[in-house]
């Protein structure tokens, strides 16, 4: 019998323990990754001012849109590698590793070029206020100059997680987050570089994270080790990666396009509201770290077990993951609402900004639980390589719904509360459709047939 790959597998053991062992490092890693921009926000808001805080905040949706598409595109490599890993296919793992790194280099260059050239145009399209435009453009251009490093880190971290190693990516993010904090303080507080200093500190941290993840890939077991001389595209494998990654990338971009439209609506209320929404989004980021960590966990868990042809284990994991994610989100949302004003005051000392941010939280945070079925069901389907259906459901029920809501209703009843309602209503619609699609069950049988695997 062929020896199993010498990295942690998640095709055996108690499901909830395996998911949690995988979940917590991803959550902590996501927390520290989010801290890059959060630290920028806190330091800029406190040491530069509300206008600078609004400038940084007004770039968030645009940055997430561009990065999200290419990170979603590269996620196909992690799914393909994870399935090969679960099937104990060494050559498949090695080919996916080198093709994935090659893809990340190409994507990083594309993101950098798009960000450097198109940022001012995109900022104007989302109605960034004139008094924020200069700072927002400076922040975005410096941020995107580090896109290659960011893509290499995200691809490398995704590859390690696909092998069951979620601890080292977390450790790297802790290290680079600490570096980012000191670099922010140096550039913004000491050197008085403003938003440019905050962006430069983030880029320096991203470069360090890329170096660290490459160092680990260079030290993997010989049969799956990364070698610079072997970076190349395996076009048959690339096709499989893109068939999974393109729908995921399109979901990211349509999701963020709808958020860009919402950001445009937020910008129309002025810099106080922009700063308030920015502070709210940073405060509520912990909720989306939790949902995202469960999404990554279930995707990798399902991918390895799909490769190992353990279909009943996949079905069990869905409900285990759902129960854990819903329970944790209830606790998290309750704490955020209870402590909303003290937490918001971390980002700004402006009482008007804190007041508006607290109102927004009351309109959205109680309903965060509704997004959990979307994350779990979509992650499960993508883990089997079935990427089109979750993309279509999310694009229509979340993105298209929000576009219609903002353009039709918010334009008529121009209030912040009406704008905020787009979030919980879109989650209800998407969750309902995902429940129907999952319980029909045909998606899993189709994936088994397409992959030529043994049916149950």
**Net shape:** globular
> What percentage of residues falls in helices of 4 or more residues?
over 70%
Global mean pLDDT = 82
As a percent range, the share of strand residues is: under 5%
**Class based on secondary structure composition and strand pairing:** mainly alpha
Low-pLDDT regions: 1-7
This entry's quaternary arrangement is single chain
Question: What is the number of strand segments?
Answer: 0
H/E element sequence: HHHHHHHHHHHHHHHHHHH
- Per DSSP, the total helix count is 19
**Main sheet makeup:** none
From the N-terminal CA to the C-terminal CA, the straight-line distance is: 23 Å
Keywords:
single chain; 456 residues; mainly alpha; 19 helices; 0% strand; globular; disordered N terminus
Describe the structure.
This protein is mostly helical and 456 residues long. The chain is built from 19 helices and no strands. Helix 2 packs across helix 10. The longest helix is centred in the N-terminal third of the chain and has 36 residues. It is globular. The N terminus is likely disordered.
